[in-house]
Backbone:
């Protein structure tokens, strides 16, 4: 199985980069993993809705160049799955003949509708609000957990 994560923006904090690197290392036992970091469009300090929409579309064009396979954008209106349900989804995608799953994390303003419309599954982590920079770590941990569940590991308790 190939897992690709497309993320808008770079992680600023060392501890977040280190956490991501740890999960990527752990994932290497279960899948081929690729991270694609794309530049976030710069906005003014108080951007208008039009400016935000324009930036999201520019980011969407970059995302579309890299997205392939089973597409899962992370968005607030997406479906919430338990860790076990995510594990089952990843397994079923592979069983149904898809070799690549692409997860997409947008900027702090989200994703353009054109990216969301590509979705095979829109996924939300929670109804709670978390720091945008933390989303990548949380998603990588859940992907790792999904593989350990399907592999019968004791990691998931």
Residues:
């Amino acid at each position: 199985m190939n897992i690709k994560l497309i993320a808008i923006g770079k992680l600023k904090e060392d501890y977040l980069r280190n956490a991501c690197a740890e999960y990527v290392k752990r994932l290497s036992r279960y899948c081929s993993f690729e991270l694609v970091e794309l530049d976030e469009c710069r906005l003014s300090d108080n951007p208008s809705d039009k400016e935000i929409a324009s930036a999201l579309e520019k980011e969407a064009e970059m995302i579309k160049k890299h997205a392939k396979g089973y597409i899962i954008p992370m968005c607030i209106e997406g479906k919430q799955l338990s860790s076990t349900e995510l594990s089952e989804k990843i397994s079923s995608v592979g069983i149904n003949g898809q070799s690549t799953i692409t997860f997409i994390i947008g900027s702090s303003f989200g994703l353009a509708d054109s990216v969301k419309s590509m979705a095979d599954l829109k996924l939300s982590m929670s109804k709670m609000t978390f720091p945008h920079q933390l989303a990548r770590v949380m998603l990588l941990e859940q992907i790792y957990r999904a593989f350990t569940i399907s592999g019968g590991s004791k990691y998931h308790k």
Observations:
- The chain has five helices and five strands.
